[in-house]
Design brief:
heterodimer; A: two-stranded antiparallel sheet; 25 helices; globular; B: Alkaline Phosphatase, subunit A; nine-stranded mixed β-sheet; DUF1501 domain-containing protein (chain B); DUF1501 (chain B)
Amino acid sequence: MSGQVRIAAFRFGFGLPLPAGGAHEPAAIAAALKGPDLAAGRWPGEGLADLLPLHQAANAARAGAVKSDDAQKFYRGLLAKVDRAHIHGLRVMMARAVGSPDGFRERLVWFWRDHFSTLARVRPDRLFNVALVEDAIRPHLAGRFADLLTAATLSPAMLIYLDQVRSVGPTSPFGQRRKQGLNENLARELLELHSLGVGGAYSQTDVRELAELLTGLTTHPSLGTVFRANRAEPGAETVLGQSYDGPGMAPILQALQDIADHPDTARHICRKLAVHFVSDTPDPGLVADLQQVWSRTGGDLAEVCSALVAHPAAWTPQMEKARQPFDYIAAALRALGFGGDEVMAMDDAAIRRHVQAPLLAMGQPFVGPPGPDGWPEEIGAWITPRGMSARIRWAMNAPTALRPDLPDPREFAVTTLGDLAGGRIGWAVARAESRSDGVGLVLASPEFNRR
Amino acid sequence: MDRRFFLRGAMAVGCSAAAHPLTTTMTFASGDPGLGENRLVVIILRGAMDGLDVVQPLGDRAFAGYRPTLGVDTGALALDGYFAMNRHLGGWKGLWDKGELGFVHAVSTPYRDKRSHFDGQDLLEAGTGTDVAPGQMTDGWLNRMLQAVPGLRAETAYAVGRDPLPVLDGKAWVRNWSPDLRMDLSPQSRLLLEAIYHDDDLFRDAAFEALDMVEEAAMRRTQASEAARAMAGADPAMSGMAMEDGMSMVSGMDPGMAGDAAGAEQRARRLADIDRMVDFAAEKLRAETRIAAFSLAGWDTHRAQSGGIQPALARLQRMILRLHERLGPEVWGKTAVLAVTEFGRTVAENGTGGTDHGTGGAMVTAGGALRGGRVMGRWPGLAEADLYDRRDLMPTSDVRAWAAWTMRGLYGFDRSVLERSVFPGLDMGEDPGLVL
């Protein structure tokens, strides 16, 4: 197998062996991304419409849970359903990552899930994190960035996590009556993390004005995101030199569009893409070329991402990045012969034991990242003593539990590592005491953990 | 001499001796710890602790006006007639009265204006000024202090817990420990793993330490279960403490949260986690270790802060009290604890009963080596003209200066080392008399 196929599979997908029909040439990878989202149809997940009734029931039960033991028990029963839906969200993401021939799309799902990081403070809200991926990220990741930014910002998960549901225009009717006011959290992170970047040309005044502009946005238990005019701060707001005024959501949508179109946004996101896929210190020419495509196409993400995979600087032989824990487990399951259907067939206990708990131990819990800035990118943040002890543990124990009929480790090294299977790792695998130790060595090796 | 260190040292010499100058066998075999007997513990408080809620300036007439829910009838404990300590920190009163716990108010790093947690923490841990872009400096100030001391041992410094601690990152040798490690490997697998990591510096260092940590964890598990059998039951005083904390954690939360029994369990687990980390660190600090660092998150209280800040306060309070208890009087007397955060929060409460990102904040000092029982730092006042940017507490001192004077007092560093190498470009100013 050529180095090019292996680099494509590791850097822009979930590793070797490629699923049937899996693309490895830049044009084919781009064509798959521009085509329909086949994985979402083949391994369907649950969106907001599916999850709202359970969320509403759990939330109502939560409020009453202090009243009696029975109410507490009822709430716990609903929480168990929430947990099952949450686990199912993880199962579906893993199935698509392991099974889809359009692996680049699945990697982008994680990139954007991380870019728009949300955490649930109470367990029922975890359902909204699942919905954010299904409804906001997947439909827009090959469209225009402005649409993606709008969908993610308006999703219940984001409005709740960054306190927008609590932020009220201080001189709005609601604010006056209830003596409530602004909360800057979403406005700040929208500019600092989601669009312009911390080095971008915005000031504290822009944060404040954007916070005022966003008032009115909140969530409703059975409707999801709603706009409540009586909470919106009256009058015009000026954000990044543009004045916004008028009733309803229109000024907010216009501001999100303008923020998405800001040149600092293109710079921030293009660099972040290059950092995520290629190198912690990406080639400046690569970033500049992506920015050019961005400005030429008005932030068309399919074009920007296609330019990334077509760029010579994205094909350096050095594997400078680490597979993050989710990528690690997905690639390991694929290497062990799992497809999407096999992952979908794993029961809750198996998902918890072999996916959810190890993700936590490796430092990437599925409930969410450490903060709104998402997971770290640097290889040194993942290849730590604690992270390595968890990866080695998975490599040495999970394969036997998942597959009683482990392959010959020498063949496994070749199908999993391609042209990197020789050298020291080949030498070590041949000396392993058992099949499971040999397979474990491959999955614990630097070659498998870098991408 | 520890055989594992010998192995690591021998392999490292062949590959990257420059990266870890302390991993040679000679260093471990000879010499006293270069830092003497004093201990320094640094706690990084992530998320921007609200100094004005921790140490409330009740004597400042403007305070209540800015904070209609957070600054009125707070139940805070009077400290000195002007300042009062958050009601959730009652467990600290004894240390305060003995002069073994104090605060510095209106303190900050040089970070200004963008109020980003992430840049703020980068600067706090890099210990640089604003002349260096956040993220540029790749090592932390506590590590640079270690770099200035010859002849340190492998056990001199520990980063404790699961979170990264950039303040201790750098060339000087630092060990890591976190409470959940478990792995069983055959000796042959271990040898083969060492072989496959041999040529990759990053993987070799991380994985070798992982293997060491796992062996140590296994050893401690054995010791702990033997000790438990010997004692035949738990220490009643300790279980009482756990119960009390567990109860107070529930009160003050909103009713939904209290009803969320899973949430209470999670908070209790986090306190138990603190205990495990502190117990490990205290054992090491009683032996050869002189430097330890921890990370405590959960301070980003944008809403419902009155109850929302409580779990974070409970963890910080527990960490210091448990350290005091586990170090014992003699070692505690030689210990300085500094708890620092990336910036403070807005003077005014926001519209949701919380506070937003600000500038000046507070730090906590503790330990028998420091002069406590007082609120240090110059108080700038809360009149609108006295605020930074007309919204934040005006910083009147640099968090780095307090850390630098602590290091000078504990270990006798020259000012020039502290102002050039450890905190490049810092002017330490006058000795605030923090170290006894």
